[in-house]
Sequence to fold (408 residues):
Amino acid sequence: MEYVQERVTTLHALTDHGPDAPTDRAAVVVPMTEREYGTLAADRVLSTLETVDPARVIVPLRASADRAGPFADWLDGFDLDVETLWCDGPRLASLLDARGLDGERGKGRDVWLALGRALDEEFVVVHDADTKTYSPAFVNRLLFPLGRGYSFSKGYYARVEDGSLYGRLFRLFFRPLVRALGDAAPGKEPDVLEYLSAFRYALAGEFAATSDLVSRLRVQRGWGLEVGTLGEAFGHAGFADSAQVDLGRYEHDHRSVEGPTGLADMSRAVGEATLRAVEDTGVDVRYDGLPERYRAAAETLVDGYAADAAFNGLEYDAPDERSQVATYAEALAEPGPDTRLPAWENAPVDPGEIREAARADLDAVRGGDPGVGSAVEDEAGGDGSAEGDAVTEAATDDGQTGSAPGED
Fold:
């Protein structure tokens, strides 16, 4: 039990108390892919949301044409006001292309589409659907600070499962990177670095915000979504209007380090988003020697993690963790072109247009229109065969196939 307050307000789960929260004024955004269809975890999340009874639930869905209809039918079976926003239809793609919003497709892009639809409510909650330990307290805890005047709230939790420490991309990449950036800054650590450091699990996918703040967020298209959102929150909410809340026990799927959807690939996007967030505030990042400074900071942290694991009787493979550090160091470079999606307050498309295009696409596949499936496959560059596993993998340019923050 501890009571430490970071520079952002930190709310601890010291008891099992479920705080009152304005759930009836909130939209809950739950990104999903066809992999969540009928799973125990997704069923648990949606069944639990029935007891929370938010104003609306919006599911931005990434799925192939032949699976989108059955998935939407399954979602309609829950006692919730669910809006299924199919993100892979040809009409929606054409609309975005016509407004200059085409490009990389991934979790961030799907969430951005749903955020626009969520702006009708006073508050917005975003979380994932692969959580094995989902509780109705999660939504209440995320919303509680907003009911007390804060404009941004982020969840945190310990990643200890199967007798081991997880949260590897946060522990071994993000945290030492921020420390290395601070070590290179002469004098006082820049406020943005102190802000990023204050969040106990910066890469967690669970957050809540007022719709006013959500309307001003520029959103990363892919795996940089979580840290990119933090960077935007720093600019619009700052220390005074930000909070973080302990969500307690939280388990979700893990990723391997290598492979097209592994942590090594994710680290590049997370690194770019972190460095861009820092540069956005006017900090002059010293890229010369950054990988070396990062590795030095990570080595110190690995020693600390090893001691902490031993203290708690947990398994800890220090050589493997150091090998991961070496892999992540290769991801550090100056950010490439800025492909963030615009804030909804000045986006060149209206959320209502998004809804109508997505609805028409979904109605078409539900009605058995074969042209929609062909159009999706053509856009994806595949034929819906096992080689591309339909649209879920083939149509996603950044390689993202999961809906979870899934940073390990």
